[in-house]
Amino acid sequence: MPLTVAIVGRPNVGKSTLFNRLAGKHLAIVDDTPGVTRDRVVADSDFGGIALRLVDTAGFDKGTPESLAARMAAQTSVAIKGADVCLFVIDARAGITAGDEFVAAALRRSGKPVIVAANKSESSAGDAGANEAFALGFGEPIAVSAEHGLGLAELREVLAPYAGESPEQAEIEDEAERPLRLAIVGRPNVGKSSLLNRLIDEERALTGPEPGLTRDAVLAEWRHGEREIVLHDTAGLRKKARVTEKLEKLSVGSTLSAVRFADCVMLVMDAAEGFEKQDLSIADLIAREGRTLVFVVNKWDLVKNREAAFKDLRERADRLLPQIAGAPIVGVSALTGEGMERLMPVVFDAERIWNLRVTTGALNRFLEDALTRNPPPAVKGRRIRIRYMTQAKARPPTFVVFGNQLKALPESYLRYLANALRAAFRMPGTPIRLTLRSSNNPYTE
Fold this sequence. Notes:
Elements: E1 3-8, H1 15-23, E2 41-47, E3 50-56, H2 68-81, E4 85-91, H3 98-110, E5 114-119, H4 127-132, E6 142-143, H5 152-159, H6 167-177, E7 180-186, H7 192-200, E8 218-224, E9 227-233, H8 246-260, E10 264-270, H9 277-288, E11 292-298, H10 306-320, E12 329-331, H11 340-354, H12 360-373, E13 378-379, E14 382-383, E15 385-393, E16 398-404, H13 411-424, E17 433-437
Parallel strand pairs: 1-3, 1-4, 4-5, 5-6, 7-9, 7-10, 10-11, 11-12, 16-17
Antiparallel strand pairs: 2-3, 8-9, 13-14, 15-16
Helix pairs in contact: 5-6
């Protein structure tokens, strides 16, 4: 028998888009107008080997007994009653609203298992809203983007136990099935397209001495060992003030989209020029988007004193980009192939760190030690109290810190915690996000 999943939530959070994504077909009408879905829509689906019966529902909203909203809510209540598990969809960009609280109360009364899907989490704009979902009391929210197909592997992992599959089995199968999305970015004319061609051993992208040859993001599907990879070669990113032509603006937009939807980004630089200001700006953009980063220094075959050059690059990267301290640096030559054998193992290791999950117990043992070594400062005579922390999600590692007066924590102390986390759990180079919440401890309830 398929696992029956009712997709519920307030109006206009993306339930039908997620329904279509999971069903693999465009079955439910999707529009920005709230309240498009009114009746239950049912579809059977094979979701990564799990047989699902999906039920798309109307937006759950308050209304007078005879109103359309109330009749739609009644239809949704029937779907909840017949479900094995409810997928509660919220809008991560909007955060938790009164409408979400209303839906959460109805789901608690139902007694059904609930999984929270924080939709529209394709960028950092959704992080705060996703973390707010902890307060709903249904456990860790799953950050997804129904529109772009992000977070589906994590969603499958959480659904698997309800279908009788062990979480370990689900995690192994998902990792084997999910392709690595790898973007190649950098300034114009540093050898991005040459690197793509060298990796896949094919003249897939046009190359030449002229800067700006690539306009659209060139996509290439590739297999390295047992791993499927989707490579995106992108247009060169110049300083914003120099981007004036319409075509180049469109190319820049395509590149930024490739970064946002990547798992790992290779930032290609010219060995003869080292870290230019624009390289630092691009690296900062990648970190702010929460992607894991590998510095690829091209034309390494032309460097004479490689040891000194590498030491200088390492020092500058860690000093100028402390938010991703330790990000790997690999010297290669896309022209000759030198150093290419080192590149993909480094990429896979960076992705592993980006996916790292730390248990709450280990985090709080770390926190106790970190607070002992460097207690939080006092504010107006009252010491800030950090009570505990938990990991909200991976990709990138995102941690929620609970306590009192946390908004008064200085940035320097947050950097101390992030760097201590990076050192304690061996997470060099990956962005680390900290979200502060003043709240009761849900683990004591």
